[in-house]
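Input/output pair, single chain:
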Amino acid sequence: MRNIPKLTDEQLVCDYANGNNEAFDTLLIRYKQRLFSYIFQMVRDRDLADDIFQETFIKAITTIRQGRYSDMGKFSAWLYRIARNLAVDSFRAEKGEHLVSADDAEYDVLNRRELAEDTIEDIMVDLQIEEDLHKLVDRLPDVQRQVLEMRYYQDLSFKEIAEITGVSINTSLGRMRYAILNLRRMAKESRVCLTR
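Output:
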């Protein structure tokens, strides 16, 4: 059986921009589950996550169709940025409705941070950390950034990363290690906190 080469995201985006709707269907299938999970993790509401998911792909479709997509080589990171920005916009719009004060309440054994869902403030801090992290990731050498994005944003195994990039698993692991070391160094130099 002949091995059919898998098209890259950029090839699919280019095909879609040239009128091949099936190319975008492939991108949708490729990212549907991971992107929805990513959004749901941020908003913790299935209906809202579904709305943001759909709006993310509508924005992506519109941008590509209008010929304004120029983030060559980083389609997945671009897609996740759109989703993150839409989630932030949603939090800003709803922020006032979700604030609750427990200042006057008596102590309740169940009123403990580790038992509670994240507050809006926690989520906003997490989103800021993620935004800072994306800026640092963009500063990594291309080969390190590529491995890191494939591992964390596309959830690929090191074996899959090695096959896609045409290097050994050890080389992929090495690039990941240096990417993490570089991120820590850059975060320290920039005084960016990557944990809350």
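Residues 87 and 93 are 10 Å apart (CA to CA). The first helix runs from residue 9 to 17.
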